[in-house]
Amino acid sequence: MPPATPELISPRSSRVLAARRLAKRNFRGKDRLFLAEGPQAVREAAGHRAGDAATLVELFATPEAADRHAEIVGAARDAGARVHLAAEQVIADISTTVTPQGLVGVCRFLDTPFDEVLAARPRLVALLANVRDPGNAGTVLRCADAAGAEAVVLTDASVDVYNPKAVRASVGSLFHLPVAVGVPVEHAVDALRDAGVRVLAADGAGDRDLDDELDKGTMGGPTAWVFGNEAWGLPEETRALADAVVRVPIHGMAESLNLATAAAVCLYASARAQRAAGGCRSVTGN
Question: Has this prediction a pTM greater than 0.70?
Answer without folding.
Answer: yes
